[in-house]
Amino acid sequence: MNLLDAIGNTPLVQLHNITKGTQAKICAKLEFTNPGGSIKDRISRYMVEKAEKEGKLQPGQTIIENSSGNTAMGLAIVARQKGYKLKIVIRDTTSKEKLKMLQVLGVDVIAVDASLPPEREDSYNNYAKNLAAKNPDLFYIDQHNNLNNNEAHYMTTGPEIWEQTKGKIDYFVAGIGTGGTICGVGRFLKEKNPNIKIIAVDPFGSIFYDYFKHKKLIEPYRYFIEGLGDEFLIKTAQFEYIDDMIKVTDKNSFEYAMKLAYEEGIIAGGSSGANIWGALQIAKDLDENKRIVTIFPDSGYKYFSTIYNEDWWKQHNNFAD
Ligand code: PMP
Fold first, then answer.
1. Residue with the nearest Cα to atom 4 of ligand 1?
2. Is 40 annotated in the active site?
3. pLDDT exceeding 70 applies to what percent of the chain?
4. Where are the alpha helices (DSSP H) in 110-214?
5. In this model, does residue 51 exceed pLDDT 80?
6. Is residue 66 lining ligand 1, measured as CB closer than 6 Å?
7. From ligand 1's centre to the CA of 58, what distance in Å?
8. Domain limits, the chain
9. Dist CA 294 CA 194 (whole Å)
10. Which of 95, 98, 153, 275 has the most neighbouring CB atoms within 10 Å?
11. Atom 2 of ligand 1 has which residue's CA nearest to it?
12. pTM over 0.90
């Protein structure tokens, strides 16, 4: 088997301990079992292969992308397997572990100041795009506006969930980062059964919730969950596939990631904490006949210096409100 063929077909497991006190069944798809350690392997492969087929990406070109770390890892694997070079723009708040992994894979990493206003030329959101516009040897993947991101989930994650649950699914709850996961899976599940409810989880500080609920663009502010939320509207956030959205705090996300470790033996990242917290909020109103599926996008091994480190909690005043 080729390494790239090992992407996807991840296990779906039922949770039994963290769910105590709720009636509904909650299942989680363990995306950290992908070869690059996250759900982003799926879109990395799909977006690159689509660009190759469409003739947009030529042999010898360098792929460039801005990523919270996981797409970078996924692209690194795809680039290594297919012989492309890779340049990645990350925020300087990205965990040390993710940075180290990229260095080990020989990726050219550019870390930008996460506190720069998003409209600045050299901000996280603009840097890769601007560099690619000036240099024809660079191919900008643009996961935030590339609908092949969503299509990757429509073609793989959605059908896997449908098969693994044999169609017995009532709610899909997942964090919204680019929106690729929730909108791609949401579109697939709704085509199969329009009664399935799609619920997005958005961090406090991100703009998505207020736009979804009130068409209002708030001033974004800083938060520490990696991989979720945004400061801008982006093309991959296709709100038409989302039924409702809930807000999550840094504290709830990190506490619930730790609870997953203590109670289920699953060492997962902060967005998995956000997702299980969200799923448990939805479960409160449901009976034992209902099933919620959620996603654990990446592993906790990438956050031992942050979420699983007491000193980091202290530095952030224990994420007190
Ligand atoms: N969790 C983590 C750790 C991520 O890196 C991402 C990707 N940004 C997500 C969740 C959200 O996935 P999506 O971009 O598909 O909305």
1. 227
2. yes
3. 100
4. 124-134, 147-152, 158-164, 180-192, 208-214
5. yes
6. no
7. 27
8. 3-33+157-315, 40-140
9. 18
10. 275
11. 227
12. yes
